[in-house]
Amino acid sequence: MKSLKASTVTMKTIIYIVCILLSLLSIFPFWVMIMNATRSTYQIQQSSVALLPGKNLLSNWRILTGKSFNPWVGFFNSMIISIGTTICAVYFSSLTAYALVAYTWRLRSAFFSFIMAVLMIPAQVSGIGFYQFMYRIGWTNSLMPLILPSIAAPAMVFFMRQYLMASLSLDIVASARIDGSGEFRTFNQIVLPIMKPAMATQAIFTFVGSWNNLFIPLILLTRQEKYTMPIMVSLLRGDIYKTEYGSVYLGLTLTVLPLFVIYFILSKYIIAGVALGALKE
Amino acid sequence: MKRTMRTVLCMLLVASIAVSLFAAGKAEEAKATRKVINLWSFTDEVPKMIEKFKALNPDFDYEVRSTIIATTDGAYQPALDQALAGGGDNAPDIYCAEAAFVLKYTQGDAAHFAAPYKSLGINVDAKLKEADIAPYTVDIGTNSSGDLVGLGYQATGGAFIYRRSIAKDVWGNDDPAFVTSKVGPGWDRFFAAAEELARKGYAIASGDGDIWHAVEGSSPQGWIVNDKLFIDKTREDFLDMSKMMLEKGYTNDTQDWTDAWFADMKDAGVKKAFGFFGPAWLINYVMAGNSGGDRPGEGTYGDWAVCEPPVGFFWGGTWVIANDKSPVKDAIGKIIEWITLDSSNTGLQYYWANGTLDGPGGTKDTVASGTVMQKSDGTLPFLGGQNMFDVFVPAGAFATGKNKTQYDETINIYWRDQVRNYSNGLKTKAQAIADFKRQVADNLALDI
Amino acid sequence: MYRVHSYRQVVVDPSSNREGGVSMARRGVSYAKWGYIFSIPFVVTFLIFSLYPTLYTVVIGFTDLRGLGKTAFKFLSDPFENYKLILANATFKKSLANTAIIWIMNFIPQITLALLLTAWFTTRRFHVKAQGAFKVLIYMPNIITAATIAILFNSLFGYPKGPINDLLIRLGIIEGPRHFHLQKWTAKGVVAFIQFWMWYGNSMIVLIAGVLGIDVTLFEAAEIDGANAPQIFFRITLPRLKTIVLYVLITSMIGGLQMFDIPRLYLLGGPDNATLTSSVFIYNQAFSGSYLYNRASAASMIVFMIIVVLSVALFFIMRDQDEVKLRKERRALKRRGGRV
Question: What is the four-CA torsion angle of C25, C30, C35, C36, rounded to 10 degrees?
Fold first, then answer.
């Protein structure tokens, strides 16, 4: 008994040390980024890593807002796009996944294979064609082409399907039918609440991905009042003659801040979460 | 089953109708005369200039819509290209191109979008002479039919920017004319000076990148000759130059635009660096901020001077181009003339050169018009009171644009990568050149 | 009336959550059409926004479209010319090799560490406090932009002055600064490390979730029998985690083959193409000066085929377990008949 306890104690010490080290490793780049947001460009160019804050937060902020564009507008646009994308993706993926799990229909397995195939198409393949298409139909400078395509999110459908297969009991659906509920109502009122943990986890992934997305918005949104936050940050970095690194880091920090908020709100689902699969890069 | 199929087909039909309506609607938008000018740029320099133009010309009642997309991550060009190709109301009327890719828009694949300046109502030949524009910027901006389609407002002819105190320590003389004769003309004299500096423990330059811009800019021929990749002898010699400088300790082995390179501007490197190669913007926009101070006596501020480089070159610059299909050519003609060819005291170039665009005390810069430079004051405390225009005006004459191609940006990345491998002893010269050719062939589909 | 029948049928096998159970048809009304109806938004959106671009790319792979702003293209006389060129392209082959190497360098530590952390956090005996906080912090790297981190690491390894160089010199580990950006395997290692750092928390969360789905009584029984922690992990947890580990494998592989942001932004695919991955290669074909859209498309298609082949292989390994269980259940069902 004694040796068991001793070995447990050593194990626990090891575990704590490793976990603390890993947590520090995870926070380190965020910390550097926030610290750099308070230093001046000159200080950053002398040494890119600092563990203590500087005094240039206000001047960096002034440069950021003085660059003839408005961070508030960027924030607002990014919010609309990300929230819209997340809602569309989560809702319609759950709907499609439900279709794959709760009903038997002839094309079902073919459809699922089709979704998996779409999943494997590299992003570059559709990227070029997509924005050329948008230009051809003149759908630029609108937030719609950035939101609507997320209705078809194959990765999420895959994920929701796995989750439903493991956690949805069809008795519930059947008894709802007996009680006279229509199919659509059953989905909205009974199935969706069951999927909350899955939806929360996927919502974080989607929100983060959409918020950080730079390339397609950059190409499609050319009017200043439509810019998103990542676009504004990239503008700061563009001027190679006089890149204001301090403001860039401040912009990056501001861009990440809302993500932290959403993340911490939804993080209890991550801790308890019942994820059975997610696409990564 | 049948009913479902019908429902599905109905929805598909509805969807496709919706999309086509959308497209039609967009196309029908205001074809009437518009009072809007679409400006595309990658920095906020030109938009700010136009604000000044409107302030000077209160009856210029066009609305200017600026689209600014930075060149980082290579995002500016694809967006600009799509906007030009797409046409319509959102297409740019005026667009800017940087030296790294300007050839594509004046002579290369996108040149057919550009409008000849003379079609904008500008008397090109007379104005060029009157303003005494540096020839290299005219060369770059002339298309294959001989028409001028773009001009830069800056002059980015390069000079050698050196440390006065180090010159005094090694030769006892920091006068620009003297140093000019020490470091040039020609690379042989330059490396002889490097040897003298090395003996006293100084590096003549920060890294091989500094030398490269001068080498690249002064080579007789560019990367493409007769539609094939061509490695000019002067550029090929750079391989050995880089290796030699590393072995003899003439540089601190830095790479431009990295922390260590900036550190050399304030003596924080391994050895003190004697000088940098660059145009006026390097002084004002890069070195001044990195000199460790903002008035003479602090850091290296005030300890610099400029002299003629061993070979003439130019580096960077922004060209302004007009869209051939623009419906507001008269208006943009006025703007472009004011920016690039107006050599009066109310022309943009005068303000730009003297740093008075936003009121007094702004950053000075060298401009394309020699006329303006003659009557402008380029004295800088950063240069110990030297008038930088004295050196930069003749420097502009040496620069040539005839050795540039539209692929330069990419080819230079590959070339510098291979040079670094060779000079650090990781490859033989033959291997480096072979790998370079391989990369160009594989990625750019050019004949080698 | 028919509703009563269907209710009874469903109750027969309560564990009918899987595909096998659902395939029992409900007599009378067919709800199958709802499957189609609910899938319509996905299909329509895909057709409008993804199908055209994808088809466009596929078609372009067979043409001579290159250069800027051109829309007219001709089909090549030898339709597979672009494909042959790409397959013979030495840089392309190198990029595939790089992608595979970097992915392996990233994935093996990732899955090992994730499994280790999973074991630690789910072994009840250890009672690791502040588990929640650790999990949240370890997952955080997943939300940072790839661009930010790539640039940060680029300046971390700066030469001759950079934080890592300064630190190593001060600690006396090396005498003079090292040119990290010039060393191929260091560059590969850094890219692999960044990928690892961004995703190991994600894998850990997924695996923990999988463990939480294992019946607790199994663990309790094993502990009563005197099994120690490693035994429990290797004999009970791991076998049941196999499906999930394979899921992590597939998603990581699909993502890994499309690795783009980090390799491109860290060193632009250098030094000397050491970190050039297939996606960066495709991007370079399309955007680095010659606008070789046709070849970029052909290369994309080739990478797509590779992904499909590998995924099918992995799915095949995975499907076996499910199918076997499924068949067993179906047989058990038939034996029990359709009674309550």
Answer: 130
Structural domain boundaries of chain A? 2-55, 62-272
Q: Measure the N-to-C terminal CA separation of chain B; round to a whole number of Å.
A: 62
Q: Is any Cβ of chain B less than 8 angstroms from the Cβ of C50?
A: no
* Sheet with B272-278: strands ordered across: B202-205, B272-278, B159-163, B304-307
Instruction: Looking at the structure, give the CATH architecture of the domain made up of residues C81-336.
Output: Orthogonal Bundle (1.10)
Q: How far apart are CA C54 and CA C72, in angstroms?
A: 18
CB pairs under 8 A between A and C: 273
Residue C309 burial by Cβ neighbours in a 10 Å radius (0-12, 13-18, 19+): exposed
List, as ranges, residues 252-311 from B with C-beta within 8 Å of A. 257, 259, 262-263, 268, 281, 285-286, 289-290
Mean pLDDT of the region C283-301: 81
Point out the least confidently predicted range of A136-140, B136-140, B421-425.
A136-140
Question: Virtual CA dihedral for B307, B309, B312, B315, nearest 10 degrees?
Answer: -80
Q: Is the confidence at residue B157, as pLDDT, over 90? A: no
Listed residue (C231, C202, C207) closest to C125, CA to CA: C231
The CATH fold of domain A62-272: MetI-like fold (1.10.3720)
CB contact under 8 A, C160 and B418: no
Instruction: Convert the pLDDT of each residue in A194-219 to its tens digit.
Output: 777 778 777 877 888 888 887 778 77
C-alpha distance from B87 to closest chain C C-alpha (Å):
11
Q: Is A181 helix (H, G, I), strand (E, B) or coil?
A: coil
C174 shares contact with chain A (CB less than 8 Å):
no
How far apart CA B295 and CA B297 sit, in angstroms, is 6
Contact C183, C201 (CB under 8 A): no
CA closest to C158 among chain A residues: A48
Cβ contacts of B67 on chain A, cutoff 8 Å:
222-224
DSSP state of C79: T
The answer to whether the bond into B360 is cis (omega within 30° of 0) is no
Q: Do A67 and B90 touch (CB under 8 A)?
A: no
The answer to whether residue A4 scores a pLDDT higher than 70 is no
pTM, entire model: 0.79
Is the separation of the CB atoms in B36 and B62 below 8 Å?
Answer: yes
- A225/B contact by beta carbon, under 8 A: no
Higher pLDDT residue, C334 or B417?
B417
Distance CA B7, CA B1 (A): 10
Q: In C, residues 294-313, which contact A (CB 8 Å cutoff)? A: 296-297, 300-301, 303-304, 307-308, 311
Q: DSSP H helical segments within C123-183, as ranges?
A: 131-139, 146-156, 163-170
Domain chopping of chain C, boundaries: 4-30, 81-336
In angstroms, the CA C336 to CA C11 distance is 13
A242 touches chain B (CB under 8 A): yes
B318-359 pLDDT, tens digit per residue, is 999 999 999 989 899 999 999 999 989 989 999 998 888 887
Of C10, C21, C199, the CB nearest to A280: C199
> Closest by alpha carbon to A123, among C146, C245, C102, B446?
C146
Structural domains of chain B sorted by starting position, each given as residue range(s) with its CATH number in brackets: 36-156+316-374 (3.40.190.10), 159-313+380-444 (3.40.190.10)
Q: Are strands B94-98 and B36-41 parallel, antiparallel or unpaired?
A: parallel
ipTM of the complex: 0.77
Tell me the pairing of strands B159-163 and B272-278.
Answer: antiparallel
Does A237 contact chain B (CB < 8 Å)? yes
CA–CA min distance A214, chain B (Å): 9
Question: Rounded to an integer, what distance in angstroms lies between the CA atom of residue B139 and that of residue B133?
Answer: 11
In tens, the pLDDT along B124-138 reads 899 999 988 888 889
Q: How far is A68 from chain C (nearest CA, A)?
A: 23
